[in-house]
Amino acid sequence: MLEANDLMVFYENMLALNNISIQCHDRQIVGVFGANSAGKSTLMYTLSGIMLDIRKKEAMAGGERITLTGSLRFEDRDIMEMKPSLRARAGIILCPERRRLFKESSVVENLRIGGYLATKAQAKKTLDYVMEVFPALQDLRGRLAGFLSGGEQQMVAIGRALMAQPKVLLLDEPLLGLSPFMQATLVKATRAIQQESGISIIVSEQYARPVFPIVDYAYILENGAAVMEGTREELMDNPDVKSAYFGVS
Ligand code: ATP
Questions:
Q1: Which of 32, 36, 42 is the pocket-test mutation for ligand 1 (most atoms within 8 Å of CB)?
Q2: Band of pLDDT at residue 126, cut at 50, 70 and 90
């Protein structure tokens, strides 16, 4: 349903994405793994279209020149030049790295903000679902987002993205900085969301291990290029992947 071919992104002369081709089919969870600076956020910004806004802002401010090439298709439409707001309406929703919540607003207010694209009925139903999938948020409904723990904030960030009625949910490093227990909780919730709502998910992480068990297919990025890809089983059986990404040989 979402398919990128030969994506290249340059920040001035610095190549941040090098000929990336990725696919995410209906109801799949696709992993994108890579070290710091491998290009994960650049890829997420490019898929969600936010890169177009960044490019425009930079051009207007006389800042760096950003160049994007390649093709991007969603549900058989060419979306390479489609604005991020229209991509969101079409169902591509980004949950950005470091969560970016409205810290002075409550949990429920943050969630409702995410529902601006939904009908009233959809928003109510999804809000109930978010509370079901993240029961810890139930008692925190009125708490200001800035006072939540990192894990709780991530739950709100994912919940807010769900409120926008995604067909494809882009999760950029959702586990960053969280405890192993919280990571496991979020991974379990991510799988439940995919299974129960049937959406597709592309999730990026620096460390593959915690999310690996729930991905159907994954790409490994190095210096902006996809150096390896395969189904979970294919990658699990690959000795190079094991030693580089799981610390076992
Ligand atoms: P992290 O885990 O640190 O978030 P990442 O895999 O998400 O890393 P990106 O943020 O996509 O990586 O960065 C890819 C490369 O592009 C890095 O070398 C980074 O320094 C560079 N880069 C990112 N944004 C810009 C920018 N606005 N201008 C110039 N270079 C940039």
A1: 42
A2: very high
On average, the pLDDT of the chain sits at 94
Shortest-distance Cα residue to atom 19 of ligand 1: 37
Instruction: Say whether pLDDT at 249 is over 60.
Output: no
Query: Which runs of consecutive H residues, i.e. helices, occur in the chain?
Result: 40-48, 50-60, 84-90, 107-114, 120-133, 150-163, 180-197, 232-236, 239-245
φ, ψ dihedrals at 94, nearest 5°: -100, 135
Q: What is the pLDDT of residues 17-57, one digit of tens each?
A: 999 999 999 999 999 999 999 999 999 999 999 999 999 99
pLDDT bin (cut points 50, 70, 90) of residue 179 is very high
Evaluate whether 15 touches 224 at the Cβ level (below 8 Å): yes
Radius of gyration for the chain, computed over Cα atoms and rounded to the nearest angstrom: 18
In sequence order, which residues have a C-beta less than 8 Å from that of residue 22 and are 6 or more positions away? 3, 4, 30, 32, 43, 202, 219, 226, 229
Q: What is the pLDDT of residue 248?
A: 55
Is the CB of 248 within 6 Å of ligand 1? no
Centroid of ligand 1 to alpha carbon of 11 (angstroms): 9
Amino acid 241: pLDDT = 77
CA pair distance 214, 203, nearest whole angstrom: 10
* DSSP designation for 177: T
Burial label for 113, CB within 10 Å (0-12, 13-18, 19+), is: middle
Indicate if ligand 1 lies below 6 Å from the C-beta of 168. Answer: no
SS3 139: helix
